[in-house]
Structure formats: C-alpha cells, structure tokens
Amino acid sequence: MRIGELSRRSGVSVPTIKFYLREGLLPSGELTSPNQANYTDAHLRRLQLVRALIDLAHLPVARVRDVLESLDSDSLSLRGRIGAVHRAVTPAPQPAADDGARGAAEAQVREFIEKRGWAVEPDAPAIATLVETIAVLHSLGREDLADQLDTYADAAERFAEREVTAVASRPDPDQIAESVVIGTILGERLIAALRLLAHEHVSARLLDRPSAPSHRTETTE
Amino acid sequence: MRIGELSRRSGVSVPTIKFYLREGLLPSGELTSPNQANYTDAHLRRLQLVRALIDLAHLPVARVRDVLESLDSDSLSLRGRIGAVHRAVTPAPQPAADDGARGAAEAQVREFIEKRGWAVEPDAPAIATLVETIAVLHSLGREDLADQLDTYADAAERFAEREVTAVASRPDPDQIAESVVIGTILGERLIAALRLLAHEHVSARLLDRPSAPSHRTETTE
DNA sequence: GCTTTATGGATAGTTATACTCTCCATATGA
DNA sequence: TCATATGGAGAGTATAACTATCCATAAAGC
User: Which SMART domains match (chains A, B) (predicted)?
Assistant: First the structure.
C-alpha cells in the first residue's frame, strides 16, 4: 500500500506519517521508483504501536524512538530487551527532594531490595525513580505510603511473574520483543486506571455508607 | 520569609516561583507593603508539592493548577475530592484505537465493572482510559493482558482499601485533601517503579536460571 | 493521451508549554 | 547611603510535536 492508504487505515495524517518517517519511528517503505514506496501491514502495525505509545502512554517522540530501536535490535536476549525497554521508558527523574531526604530514601530502598532478595542492577533507572519518590513522600509527610513498600512489591511481583511468563511463551522472537514493549507500557496504564476505579469504589463503600448524609456531586447510591 | 528565602529553601529559582504565582500554582504571600510579601511554611510545602507533581508525576502546569484548585475547595467531601483529583489527573485519552475495537472494549469494561460490583460513575475518566487501553491491547494482539483484568483489579482493590483508609484517618481536613493528591499521584509512581524492578528480578529468575549459561546483559539464547 | 490527484522528500512555519529575562519603582540591610 | 532584593508585569526563549509548502514525478480517471 502507499502512504495514503496507510494514513486512512491508521487514522494518522499523511504529514504526520512523513514526520514519523523522518524521526525514525517508522521504517521507510520499499521504493519502487524515486517517488513511490510500498508499505506493508508491518508498517501499519508499527504505526499503531507508535500511536499507542504517544497517545496512550504519553511517551515523547524521542523515547518512542529509543524503545523501537531496542525492539528492532535482535542481538538482545529477552532479559536484555526488558532492560532496554525499561531504560527507554524511565527517564532519570528530575531531582525533587532535598539531599537529606534522598539519602535516607536511598538507604531504605537498598535495604528493601536486599530483604526482598531482588536481583536487580544497582543502576536500574526504576531505582532512581523509586528513591526520588520515596524521598518526596517522606518530605511531604506521607511516610506511611513509603512504609507499605512490601504490600506493593508483593503485588508487583505477582504481576511480573504472570507478565514475564506470558511474554516468554510467545513463539516468534519479534512478537516477544513487541510484547515486552506493549506489556510494560500499556500494562502500566491498565493498572493505573484500575487503581483509580478501585479508589472510587472503595471510597464509596467505606465513606458514604457508614455515616455521611448528603453529597451533591455524587448520587448517594 | 520573602521570595529569596523561599527560593533557597525549595531549590526553585525566583523567576520560576514568580511564574507559579502568576499561574496560580502558589497563593501570593501576604503583602506588608506594595513590593514586599511574606511567605510561610505553608507556601514552602505547597511549592514542594508542585515540584513533585511537575518533576516526578510529570503533570503539566495546567493540570497541577486543576489539582490544587480541587484541593483548596473545602466544599468537597473526601469522596468528592478523590473524584476531583482523578478528573484533574486523568486527561481524556487521545483516541488511539479504531471504533470497532473500542466498542468491544467498552462492552468488556462494562461487564467487568458490573461483575466486580464496583460502584463507579459511568463517566469516570479512568473508564475511558481503561477502554482505550484495552481496545489498543486487542488490536495489537495482547488480549491475554486484557483478559487478566481481574488479577490487576484484585490488587488494585487491596491498594485502594489501604490507601483510602490511611487517608481518611488523618485528623485535619487540609491534610486529607493533600494526602489524596499525594497518595493518588505519587502512589502510582511507586507502583510503576516497583513493577519494573519486579520485572527485572523475575526475568532474571525465570529466564537466566533454568537453562542459558552466562548472560551479561546481552546476547545468547 | 491528457489532466487531475497523489507521492516521496526536503525545508520552513506553527502552536503549545514551561520557563527565563528585563524593567521599574520601591524596600531592605550593611 | 547605596548596593542588593522585591513584587509585579510584559516580552523573549527553548523545546516538542506537528503542519504547511514546494517540487518533480508517478498513478488514476476520463
């Protein structure tokens, strides 16, 4: 197919597709003449993935490129791929806590990882995010959340076990690579959305039922 | 304190603080004369919260303003506040799936919520995100993830129960409001970071141990 | 065969966001 | 008293993500 059909089928405008081609988010089609190229279903699929990463996961274009590059390099093992996706997806966090709080958080995280027996590289980008988040939680007085790390980690471990198993069982290496990307990034959105809904449900159950008389914004059930 | 000290103590530059004042992210200090104002520890704290939302949660300034407005309106119940924070935090997702996939996803989500007995408003923003995410998962061939909704929801419910309880037990209504914001937004980062670490750990355990000789981070298989 | 539309490729322009800079009249502090 | 800081307002800047315009050529419709 040519760019027009690719555009129609994906819902992405032709100029935007051209932009993605320039930015390396989409490989160019096979040229049949100097100004005609042939795009395949693989291009369509890739384009859908790009839109998912940009529109749904809100990754910046530069990060999407990083993700896709690691996806296309076939010299990586599954574990290597997972690491590459993590690095592409997790930017080094802007420092948002003061150094004191960060130091304490670092110690807490180190201890936590050791207690858990988690085999992770000490410079994994997620660790920096975790440290910064905990440091901020402490300086904002929500140490209770930071102290529940194990509760969250238990669930995270269960998720990870299922997810890694599911991904590893795919037959085709290309599918594996793509699945890592999709599962890591869209899975996060899924969990976040469900958590918000659960908040609504639980707050309705715990807070409206027992006492409180009339709310306005909400229908009282 | 005056703006200089606020800047030194928060690590935020004076021009940026002025920008936040203009944008309504920070209430102005009490004027003692036409060009002298007095800032308090509450300002410092608010500023730290703003930086956390911007640097750590990557909320755009306009969203931060929405969040803080709902935080400052004291006419809302706890449940109302939670809803307001959700709305401020969850942008309507860009359509990233085709209409067919979205329709199917909508049905799946409706059924799922009913089966769970979750009392949520049908136009909760998280539902739209959930629908769009599931639609994309389907059109990218990862229906297995979308089919595990209950696994994720079980965990989300456990999280929510703890979190809502913790927040509701705060004595001061102002603290409650702020806790909702912090817990909702930073809690998500916490969970996401732990999930990534768990991925690393689990992939090391499941994939390196069984067979493969020595990985270093790359190659082999 | 001829006109209209579409295409690949390149370059320039646009919009939005998040600051950052410059002024100015006034206030503070050494 | 005089350099420095302040509140407030307006203009300027950097970056990201498109969007528009050109052009020579190719395909499609008549």
Answer: HTH_MERR (SM00422)
Residues of chain A with Cβ-Cβ distance to B149 below 8 Å are 190, 194
**pLDDT-derived band at A79, boundaries 50, 70, 90:** confident
Asked if residue B181 is part of any domain, the answer here is no
**pLDDT, position A187:** 96
pLDDT surpassing 50 at residue A221: no
Which one-letter DSSP state was computed for residue B38? E
Does B98 lie in the same domain as B30?
Answer: no
Task: Say how many domains are in chain A.
Answer: 1
CB contact under 8 A, A190 and B152: yes
What range defines the domain where residue A142 resides? 92-169
Report the protein residue whose CA lies nearest the C1' of nucleotide C5: A4
pLDDT at A47: 97
Query: Hey, is the C-beta of B142 within 8 angstroms of any chain A C-beta?
Result: yes
Residue A24 CA and nucleotide C3 C1' are separated, in Å, by 36
CB A70 within 8 A of CB A56: no
| Chain C bases having any atom below 7 Å from a protein CB | 6-11, 17-22, 25-28
**Which residues are bridge partners to A36 per DSSP?**
A33
Distance CA B158, CA A191 (A): 12
Q: Does the residue A131 lie in any domain?
A: yes
Tell me if chain A has a CB within 8 Å of the CB of B136: yes
Contacts of A54 in chain B (CB under 8 A): 94
**Chain B residues with beta carbon closer than 8 angstroms to that of A175:** 141
| pLDDT tens figures, B150-159 | 999 999 999 9
Lowest mean pLDDT among B43-47, B70-74, B112-116: B70-74
Q: Is B190 helix (H, G, I), strand (E, B) or coil?
A: helix
Q: Is residue A73 part of a domain?
A: no
What is the rounded distance in angstroms from the CA atom of residue B206 to the CA atom of residue B221? 13
- The 10s digit of each residue's pLDDT in B20-46 is 999 999 999 999 999 999 999 999 999
* pLDDT band, very low/low/confident/very high, at A75 (cuts 50, 70, 90): confident
